[in-house]
Amino acid sequence: MEIHIPDLFDLQKITDSGQCFRAALLPNGAHRFITGKQVLYIQKTAPETYWVSCDPDTWMHIWRPYFDLDRNYRDIGNAIPAKDTFLAQAAQVGAGIRILRQDPWETLVTFIVSQRKSIPAIRAVVELLSQRYGSEIRTPEETLYTFPTALQLKDVCLEDYLACKAGYRASYLCDAVNQVLSGTLDLTGIAALPDSELIAALERVRGVGIKVASCVALFAYGRTACAPVDTWIQKIIRQAYHGQDPFARYGSAAGIMQQYFFYYAQTHKLETA
C-alpha cells in the first residue's frame, strides 16, 4: 500500500534516535518496526511517498498513531526562536525524528535495561529477551518474536535475566514483572494521570528514577512536555545554556526538543565528561 506523509519524517533518524530498540534498516532499503504483534515494513519510494506492508485499517489505527502523524513537526521546528541558536541547529540536524507511541510495558523494560548501556548493547538484550520469551511472528520475509509480556516473564528468574546480559538491572526487571502482575503497577490505569503523578507511579518500580520514568512517559504515553535528562543532555545544558534548563520555555514540545538535543549529541559525538 502507498501512503503520503507531507510532514517531516525520516525513517533512519527515527531508527537511530534512541527511543526504540527494535527498529531496523533492512538490506533491501526498507525499515522494519515492531509493536506488540504487529510488524511493519516501510520504504520511501518518492518525496513524501512511502510503501507500507500493512492494510489501510492497520495503518490508521496502529501505525499512524505510533509515528505521531497527527502532530505537525514542521510547525514545531519553525516556532523555535532564532536566538536559541543551539536548538535551532539541533532541530535542523534532527528534522524528521518523531516521538513514537510505543507499548508501555516494552518501553518500561527497555529503558530499565538502557541504564549505563550503549544502544547496540540495549538492542542485544532486548532481542535476547524477545527470542527466548516472546511469541513467534512469521512474515513473508522472516521469522521474528514479540517483546515478551509480563505474563510471559512470570517464571523468569534472576539468573535467566543475567543470561540475557541484563547485568545489575536483572533485579529491577524482576520487580517490574511482579508489580505489573500483582496489579501494584497498572500501566493502563496510570495513563489517565497527569504527568507528575504518572512519573511518580513509574518511579515506584525498583531501579526507575526520574530519567527512565520520563522516557516511559514520553515514548509510551505521548507526554511530550516531559524531557528526559541524561549525561548527553546534561552536557548540552552546561555548555550551550550555562547550566540553565532550556526545556521549560517549550512547554508541551519539550520532549521533542530533547530528542533533537539527543540526536545531535549522538551524531556529533559530544563528549559527556
Structure description:
This protein is of the alpha+beta class. It folds into three domains: 2-70, 2-Layer Sandwich (TATA-Binding Protein); 73-94 and 222-273, no CATH class; 104-220, Endonuclease III, domain 1. Helices cover 44% and strands 11% of the residues. The protein is built from twelve helices and seven strands. It has helices at 11-15, 56-66, 73-78, 85-93, 104-113, 119-133, 158-163, 170-182, 195-202, 210-221, 231-241, 254-267, and strands spanning 2-4, 24-25, 31-35, 38-46, 49-52, 136-138, 143-145. The strands form two sheets. Strands 1-5-4-3-2 form a five-stranded antiparallel sheet. A hairpin with a 5-residue loop joins strand 2 and strand 3. It is globular and about 55 Å long.
What features would you highlight for this structure?
alpha+beta; 273 residues; globular; TATA-Binding Protein; Endonuclease III, domain 1; 7 strands; 12 helices
Please outline what is shown here.
This protein is α+β, with helices and mostly antiparallel strands. Helices cover 44% and strands 11% of the residues.
CATH architecture of the largest domain: Orthogonal Bundle
The CATH superfamily label of the largest domain reads: Hypothetical protein, domain 2
Lateral arrangement of strands in the main beta sheet: 1-5-4-3-2
Shape: globular
Q: What is the average per-residue confidence, as pLDDT, rounded to a whole number?
A: 96
The secondary-structure class comes to: alpha+beta
Give the C-level CATH assignment of the largest domain.
Mainly Alpha
